[in-house]
Amino acid sequence: MTETMAPSRPLNVMVVDDEAVSRVVLRSAVEDLGHIVEEATSGDDAWARISRDGMPDVVITDHLMPGIGGFELCRRIRALRDDSYTYVVVVTALDDPDDVLAGMEAGADDYLTKPLDPRQLGLRLVAAQRVTGAYREMAGYRAELERANGELVEMARTDPLTRLGNRRRLHEDLEALHARAMRYGHEYCLALVDLDSFKAYNDTYGHSAGDDALKAVADALTAECRTGDAVYRYGGEELVVLLSEQALDGACVAVERMRNAVMMLGIPHVNNTAGGVVTISAGVASLTPGAQVTGVLTAADDALYRAKAAGKNRVTS
Amino acid sequence: MLVVDENPENRRAVRGSLEALGWLVDEAADGPQAIDAAVARDYAAVFMDRESSGIAGLRAAGSTARVIGRTTVDPARLALLATSRSGRDLVAELVDLFVRSAPSRAGALRDAAGLADRDALRFVAHNLRGSAGNLGADALREACTHLENAAVAGRWADARALVDTVVAELEAARDALLVLAVS
Known about the structure:
The complex is a heterodimer.
Chain A: E1 12-16, H1 20-32, E2 36-40, H2 43-53, E3 58-62, H3 70-79, E4 87-93, H4 97-105, E5 110-114, H5 118-155, H6 167-184, E6 188-195, H7 198-205, H8 207-224, E7 230-235, E8 238-244, H9 248-265, E9 280-286, H10 293-309, E10 315-316
Parallel strand pairs in A: 1-2, 1-3, 3-4, 4-5, 9-10
Antiparallel strand pairs in A: 6-8, 6-9, 7-8
Chain B: E1 2-4, H1 8-20, E2 26-28, H2 31-40, E3 45-48, H3 51-60, E4 66-69, H4 75-81, H5 88-115, H6 118-135, H7 138-153, H8 156-181
Parallel strand pairs in B: 1-2, 1-3, 3-4
Helix pairs in contact in B: 1-4, 2-3, 5-6, 5-8, 6-7, 7-8
């Protein structure tokens, strides 16, 4: 008999009965098994306590009570969807076998008959511990899975070198920003940024130095961003800056500041035709009414082409 | 406490339960033996399997011992409750609850029967049945079951008669429990 052994994890057990003697008998038996008891003097009292304090691990409820009866209480508990599982035991009179079936159909896990036998109760609580433990474990796995999924989602949208959002994230954010801008008539701008003579840089200093330069530029752009703006790695040596709630002239000023910040990094680049240090060119475009997302991107690309053609290290719109 | 029963196994069982409740127990196999024992010693109560058979003899022999029928209170139920950690304190607490609630319950039964309030009568009877079962008051429990059924069926003449039976059994159970719980 494990009756007197303290369980590894005490269960919170709510005892529901409108009859005081039964409550005391149940309380005593449950406490003897090392669990924690809360008494409710009616179904309504039990439901009020559950609504206020949340679900206990186990509910042991009398069947026939004025107001909310045991079966109704059981149905209400089952209707609450939760990660945790509440083990419900209904108590019926020994001579009401139909009640047992009705109780199980209402969602009870098990039943006890009156008069209560403390040993029978012990068996129910062993089962309750097993079932609630399994549910808790499942909830733990689910949380772990959700966390891992979140990590994967994040990883799939981050450029590992610069830690900037990648092209996939850009497209998602851009769609969202575009939809918002169209709906509320707000403005936003997009800047396509390209490192000048980057192939020559890699050829001169090596790919590892190229990566470092790209990171430095990404950081410089991020540092110049306002809250709400974001920098992405579009691919290769191309970056994108999204400037929300920004008209074209304001955006050009902001990007011009970024261009200057990159130049001021002073990273040597002897084969840059635009000067002896690493520089960027940028094409800025704003949302035109009724335009598609691709239209904004194309306009920025055209502007970037003009910046390059005009001699690099400049911002064009 | 004197246990009267012609079946030695029954005597042994009742004796064990009473001892678990802290009583010193003597046994008697039949009426004459019981009378001899009761004349020789003072008992807090005499436990009888068939109440009616021995009482007259006991009284005739001058014994004033209280007689408790096995169906009035089954000591095995109380002994089971006494196996809890709080032991006989739990039994005392339960008996106290039962005794204190007895007058209001009897009143509630009479009121509900008088008003022909089906739900009230049903719930009070059901409630009392639960208490009775927990304390081993089997006769009271059974009377409550009949009353509950009569109430549900709306048999009011039966119900009123059964209320009298239930109240009588309630008082008998209360008196027996008061003796048993204070060893």
